[in-house]
Amino acid sequence: MPPEGLAAIVERLERAAAELRAGDLDPGRAAALVDECARLAADAGAQLDAELRAADAGTAAPGQLRLA
Fold first, then answer.
1. 62: in domain
2. Better-predicted residue by pLDDT, 32 or 65
3. Considering its fold, how many domains does the chain have in total?
4. Contact criterion met (CB below 8 Å) for 19 and 40
5. Is 51 among the domain residues?
6. Which is more confident, 51 or 36?
7. List of long-range contacts for 44-48, beta carbons under 8 Å, 24+ apart
8. For position 34, what pLDDT does the model report?
9. Which of 14, 37, 44, 66 has the highest CB neighbour number within 10 Å of its CB?
10. What count of other Cβ atoms lies within 10 Å of the Cβ of residue 50?
11. Mean pLDDT of the chain
12. Is residue 33 situated within a structural domain?
């Protein structure tokens, strides 16, 4: 499965945060959401790192600027 786009990860994180802020979750569901947020944050970090390495190697996706 291809990596999830950053925009999709951010959207999922925002939905999870809204659900957590609502405050009407049982503790098990809240814990599962916190775990999901940690996984999504790790996925986002890995994707950003891969994009940075690709840009640094000159293999950035079309339309992306190479970092100086």
1. no
2. 32
3. 1
4. no
5. yes
6. 36
7. 44/6, 44/9, 44/10, 44/13, 46/3, 47/3, 47/4, 47/6, 47/9, 48/6
8. 94
9. 44
10. 11
11. 83
12. yes
Q: What is the CA radius of gyration of the chain?
A: 16
DSSP conformation letters of 4-20: PPHHHHHHHHHHHHHHH
Q: Which two tokens stand for residue 36?
A: 């999901």
- Predicted TM-score (pTM) of the model is 0.69
**pLDDT of amino acid 4:** 67
Ramachandran class of 56: left when φ > 0, alpha when ψ lies in -120 to 50, beta otherwise: alpha
Give residues with Cβ within 8 angstroms of 6, minimum separation 6: 44, 47, 48
Residue 60, domain member (yes or no) = no
Give residue 42's domain range. Answer: 25-55
